[in-house]
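Render this sequence as a predicted structure.
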Amino acid sequence: MTDAGSDGPSFDPRRWGAAKPDASRPGAGDPTFDPKSWSQPKAAAPVPKSSSAGWIVAGVLVVMIIAAGGVGYVAWRGGTASHSVKVVTIRTVVAPVVPGAQRRSLTLTGPQELMGALTSAGVAQIDAEAATQAAQVQLGGGSGALRVTLTLLPAGAGVVLSRVEARHDNGTGAIVSRQPDGRYMATAAGADLVTQIKVVRGQMDVNSFYSSAVAAGVNDDLIPGFAQAFAYDFDFQREIKPGDVFEAVFEQQADPSGDAVGAGKLLFASLETQAKSKALYWYAPPGKPGGWFDANGHSVIRSLMRTPVEGARISSPFGIRLHPVLGFMKMHNGTDFAAPVGTPIYAAGDGVVEFSGMKGPNGNFTKILHPNGWETLYLHQSFIEPNVVAGAHVSQSQEIGLVGATGVDSAGHSTVTGPHLHYEVHINNTPVDPMSIAVGVGQALGGAEMSGFIQERNRIDALRASQGG
């Protein structure tokens, strides 16, 4: 029940960047992945003062756009036409335009960093202090991330701070403006948010789905959800190849300056390989939690998930193999998913825990009995969730533990060569190949729920069609 180590690329969010440290979980203390570190915001180039004709033309364009009732634009990422982002703005808010101004956007961990951010941007100490004091009246002394937009005007060899917008994730915050007498005045920024629908299309690169999606313009916090939507239909390790096509439609809140506020919401996901394709819609029936459905209203949820670990690669399939520790041919009764220590493990289906704890060569081991009589086994975990105990009920996709490399034989020697999850499925007490069994068909919506789904599906398809989908 062991396997070789986890060398080589893996479709795994923790290879993209480690999870936030959690002292209660082994292997969870690596640095946090931060998309803000990919590049620093660039200041907009100053507009020449002599370009008065350009400002007149720009003003006419703004009027035309407002009259049209919306804004659409195309943003290309990665310098390739195979990756595109198109945005439909549901309600347009036009930010004030100041000739010659430079706009800089940044994210701070809290209001206490505002002073340093201003001086780092070249604002004079006396102005930075005055603007920070004015902002604190509206922001208070609490913590929490702030998205800050600075408007800077050229002044000799330096700059003068004209405006500061500092907003919390919910859109509230402070707007600080420089008055004609040089003082700074702050007003409260209400949660006046703009809803944008973004349609993103791209192709798989040679590295991973994560790098492909980021290059195409998918928000990094939406990528795990995109992958989980296809957990029942695709093996990302063996079936996804460079050139395969994906599409995502997601909703994003933005402040009046156009900066994102809070996390996005994935509405549609599609994946097309050389062998098959799948398109899924997110829908929440009234009074029920949301889920993924195909175009005919069938849920993606099956009796069992094919991959009960977050984005790992298959390092050893079911069947006869040369045992990596014992050195002789032996039946391998499950599938090994290689992944870093600390990668989440999920219950493959609803069921009752039959066993949970340390068990010799199996290491930290969990066994779950499912309603249809099938059993699933999860071996070599580094950590088992405290509520996953014998007799406890678990739900499909519930996190039950973390990937590890635990397990020793009777002589105290390790039975594993690297971190991985050994996963088994037993039917009538007989091990079967988890990757080949039929896992059923998702339940279909009916009645009023189906009518509501059709309306939502048609709405999303109309948005996609408006963007060439």
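Summary. Residues 447-466 form the longest helix (20 residues). The radius of gyration is 27 Å.
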